[in-house]
Amino acid sequence: MIVGRRLEPYLSDALASIADICDHLVIDDNSEHAGGVNEAAIRSSAFAREGRLTFVRSPFTNFSDARNACIDATPDTLRSGWALYADADEVHGAELSAMASCLARMPADVDALDGYSMNFIGSFSYWNTIHRRLRFFRMHPQRRWQGTVHEALTPLRRREALPAIGAHYGHVCTPEMEVARERLYKSLGQPVTLLDKAKVDIVTPALVWGEQLRDAQVFRGSHPAAAEATIARLQHEWAPVFREVERIVAEQGALDLVRNRLRKFNYERLLTFRAIEARLRWGFKVPAGTLALAPAS
């Protein structure tokens, strides 16, 4: 995992959600000084309390360099095992332990086991995409991260996927936090369009998420237990943002609603196929109560 100068509001939850899955945490703090805004959450985690933490500090150049610093700092005793690709804004439930239980059944040429992420947008009440996401990978001396922003792990031989969905809360933030992230991406050479629109004094939810909220789907499930307290707190602290997001979503047109139903159907079809395949090949069953698509009411 890597963290930087920006406060990560879901960091404690992300760490708690993987503490029973991972033997050890390697985290790279790129804030470039001791006592960064995220260090207290790291030091209070189960990993730190139980002596299962390797804490690295390195200057930030790009995302691949930061993640490679984590690989380089991994204890020698763990370099032949499986690693979890973890983000500070992703929170897991029982789906992650179910995935981990399948690792021992993966053939020797499988280098990566993917899951899926549900991307919440503007609010805890809405999501807009579900995408395949690297979860576990085999450690190997030649395996390195490449790319400045959307880093990729290479070389990888065979990849498999399980229909286990984690919660990604990176875009449930304030509009100002969204713009700050875009500035970072732009500084790394990533083409962005949001900053062209964000040259006004007031940055609003409509400005940063207006187009994406046309794809918003109502979330009817339960959030991971590890995130519940943070969600309750932020529902209060960011209430004006969430009210504005609610208003924008309510303005979806008839074509938006039809398109979103089709998109949801396609996600359901894909995940159903994956569930059948995973049950037959690996004996994997999606745990009850985990993040999933729920039928419309």
Describe the structure.
The protein has 297 residues and is α/β, with parallel strands linked by helices. It has one domain (1-284): Spore Coat Polysaccharide Biosynthesis Protein SpsA, Chain A (Alpha-Beta Complex). 36% of the residues lie in helices and 22% in strands. The chain has 11 helices and 11 strands. The chain has helices at residues 11-18, 39-43, 46-49, 63-73, 94-100, 175-187, 194-197, 205-209, 228-237, 239-250, 254-282; strands spanning 2-3, 25-29, 53-57, 82-84, 90-91, 110-121, 126-138, 144-146, 152-154, 158-171, 217-218. Strands 4, 5, 6, 7, 10 and 11 form a 6-stranded mixed β-sheet that branches. Strand 1 (2-3), helix 1 and strand 2 (25-29) form a beta-alpha-beta unit. It is globular and about 55 Å long. The mean pLDDT is 93.
The CATH C-level name is Alpha Beta
Strand proportion: 15-25%
Sheet with the most strands?
6 strands, mixed
Helices and strands, in order, run as EHEHHEHEEHEEEEEHHHEHHH
CATH topology: Spore Coat Polysaccharide Biosynthesis Protein SpsA, Chain A
How much helix is in the residues? Answer: 25-40%
Radius of gyration: 19 Å
Given the C-alpha coordinates, what overall shape results? globular
**How many β-strand stretches?**
11
Total helices: the number is: 11
Second rung of CATH, namely the architecture: Alpha-Beta Complex
State the distance separating the first and last CA atoms: 38 Å
Low-pLDDT segments: none
Structural class: alpha/beta
